[in-house]
From TrEMBL:
Classification lineage: Bacteria, Bacillati, Bacillota, Bacilli, Lactobacillales
Gene transcribed to yield this protein: dinB
UniProt GO MF annotations: damaged DNA binding; DNA-directed DNA polymerase activity; magnesium ion binding
The name this protein goes by in its record: DNA polymerase IV
Domain UmuC: 19-203
GO cellular component terms listed in the entry, alphabetical order: cytosol
Family designation: Belongs to the DNA polymerase type-Y family.
Species of origin: Atopococcus tabaci
Length: 373
């Protein structure tokens, strides 16, 4: 690993852990294909048919065959229909997916006790210590992929590395059915070639800002001093400075240790103007932070819930690089998610802001590196 010129207080990487990130391939679509094998090999789109919803539905996911036509998650079903008229529209069955998700979780438990479920189809496994006593996390990931396939007839992609940040990037690297291991010696090259948008916490607005600063990939980011990045991006700048050096000490946290704190508001009259949404997000963020302060806890993952006029409800999460403690930080992430996924034209019936993955504040204080103020 080439670090270039090392300064005496350059942060160090911890490469002692072995982390696997698993993400199911086209999850909802794959479950539907398993349940109805006649869909095999066809462009399957998980959404109600636009003809049945007056064109109002949204695609939750699509099989890889449908993706070839440009169909993707969060796209209006009407647009998906225009891109792929021969697509087979299947309405989602969330209870079934939750059940399958639990079956996947049960498989993980054969390998380690340290499992962090990130969403219905995604989890981190810390396999530094594992039930098979294997030293190779790559071999273990392969076994997990086979196990899931044998037992559930579903495929997944796996990423293996020494921290969560890189493991997650790795699982996405060769989807579907991928297995990518990023050894500590490869990490720097891997991070250098990474487009800036792929760094955790970098939303659309930050990408624009980075591009204005001539930062397009990890290598450009790496050139910037910690001082500059903090000046430009605050706490996120410090986190990015570490991430691009392959440093991420965040632990894999067991589901049972996780908590969340959220507030939501249903509106008597649907919101139709963006300013109303922004104002509401600010108010919700304030309430969440107030509740959080009482509990002496903080978290990094923000979940925005939006219910549209047609009652379709979407939730979208984003993980911030640092613990969120202030109203302004929470508000900014919620706003960022809104800008990524929100659709004002559909009328907003409900908004919710939740902070999840909460840790007691005391816990972080104990772990704070000296140079972090
Ligand atoms: P993802 O893992 O993001 O997508 P995926 O599993 O369908 O495809 P990939 O092979 O790229 O991992 O999300 C998991 C499930 O979550 C997905 O099957 C459907 C649901 N989902 C939504 O409902 N809305 C969304 O905007 C996204 C991104 C996913
Ligand atoms: Mg997936």
């Amino acid at each position: 690993m080439q670090y270039g010129l090392l300064t005496f207080n350059e942060p160090k990487r911890d490469v002692s852990r072995k982390i696997i990130h698993i993400d199911m391939d086209a999850f909802y679509a794959s479950v539907e294909i398993r349940e109805n094998p006649s869909l095999q090999g066809k462009p399957v789109i998980i959404a109600r048919h636009p003809k049945d919803t007056y064109g109002r539905g949204v695609v939750t996911t699509a099989s890889y065959e449908a993706r070839k036509y440009g169909v993707h998650s969060a796209m209006p079903a009407q647009k998906a229909y225009e891109l792929c008229p021969q697509g087979i529209f299947v309405p989602g069955r969330h209870e079934l997916y939750r059940q399958v998700s639990e079956e996947i979780y049960a498989i993980f438990k054969h390998y380690t006790n340290l499992i962090q479920k990130v969403s219905v189809d995604e989890a981190f496994l810390d396999v530094t210590e594992n039930h098979l006593g294997l030293r190779s996390a790559t071999l273990l990931a392969q076994k997990i992929q086979h196990h899931i396939y044998e037992k559930l007839e579903l495929t997944c992609s796996a990423g293996v590395s020494y921290n969560k940040f890189i493991a997650k990037l790795a699982s996405d690297y060769q989807k579907p059915k991928g297995l990518t291991t990023i050894e500590p010696s490869m990490a720097q090259d891997f991070l250098w070639q990474l487009p800036i948008k792929d760094f955790y916490g970098v939303g659309k607005k930050t990408v624009e800002r980075m591009h204005e600063l001539d930062i397009y990939d990890g290598k450009d980011l790496y050139q910037r001093s910690e001082y500059d990045l903090v000046q430009l991006f605050g706490k996120m700048g410090r986190s990015l400075y570490r991430k691009v050096r392959g440093i991420d000490d965040s632990p894999v946290i067991n589901e049972r240790d996780r908590k969340s704190c959220g507030k939501e508001h249903t509106f008597g009259r649907s919101l139709t103007r963006e300013e109303q949404v922004i104002q509401e997000l600010r108010q919700l963020s304030k309430s969440v932070i107030q509740a959080l302060k009482k509990h002496q806890s903080h978290g990094k993952t923000v979940v925005l819930k939006i219910r549209y006029n047609d009652f379709e409800t979407i939730t979208k999460r984003k993980t911030f690089p640092n613990y969120i403690k202030e109203e302004e930080e929470l508000f900014r992430v919620a706003q960022d998610i809104w800008e990524d996924v929100g659709n004002m034209e559909r009328g907003i019936r409900l908004l919710g802001v939740t902070l999840t993955g909460l840790d007691p504040i005391l816990y972080e204080n104990l772990k704070l590196p000296l140079w972090e103020t």
